Amino acid sequence: MDGFLRMAIIHSGHLDLKRAPTMLAEAVERGLSVVRSVARHKGIALRFVPGTPLELPLDRGKIEQVVVNLVKNAVEHSHAGAEVVVTLEADTEGALLSVRDHGTGIAPTVLANLFEAYTGGDNKTAGERSVGLGLAISKLIVEAHGGRMQVETELGRGTTWTVHLPR
After folding, report:
1. What does 58-103 look like in DSSP terms, one character per residue?
2. 50 Cβ partners below 8 Å, 6+ apart?
3. Count of CB atoms within 10 A of residue 48's CB?
């Protein structure tokens, strides 16, 4: 997705979905494949725990973008030698997708505006640059699917993002 399209989506607050039956683990794998070289270059291990296979009515490309955004963010906030773990599991309502890092964590002052556009974090470990659209776009995509995003974080200890996607 290019920058102008991202800006238009954020400003309109609307996202058109092209839903189709999607094996969620395959969408996660494709998203991870986009970020693997960045992680490898930085010395970050990516581990995927796919859980029980689950098919949901999703816009596959947009869910892949959420995976790319969250995992790239985790890599950018992790130090060389760290591991980012992505897990996928079914629950009674649908699926839980989690991305966990042991990186810098998110300051409480940043949490309040975390999902607003152009509020990229400044505690990236290798000076990576960002315009701050990834989390805002991800939240919009997840909510357009009827889901929700949660974050648990501790400064200096890492962050876990959990995406809840309904059946």
Report:
1. E-HHHHHHHHHHHHHHHHHTS-TT-EEEEEEEE-SSEEEEEEEE-S
2. 25, 28, 29, 88
3. 17
Q: Tell me the C-alpha distance between 55 and 10, whole Å.
A: 28
Query: Which whole number is the average pLDDT over 156-167?
Result: 94
The pLDDT tens digits for 15-52 are: 789 999 999 999 999 999 999 999 999 999 999 999 98
What is the pLDDT confidence band of residue 4, given thresholds at 50, 70 and 90? low
Q: Which domains does the chain have, with CATH numbers?
A: 3-166 (3.30.565.10)
Rounded CA-CA distance 89/50 in Å is: 7
How far, in Å, CA of 142 to CA of 128, rounded? 25
Residue 157 DSSP symbol: T
The tally of CA atoms less than 13 A away on the side-chain side of residue 94 is: 20
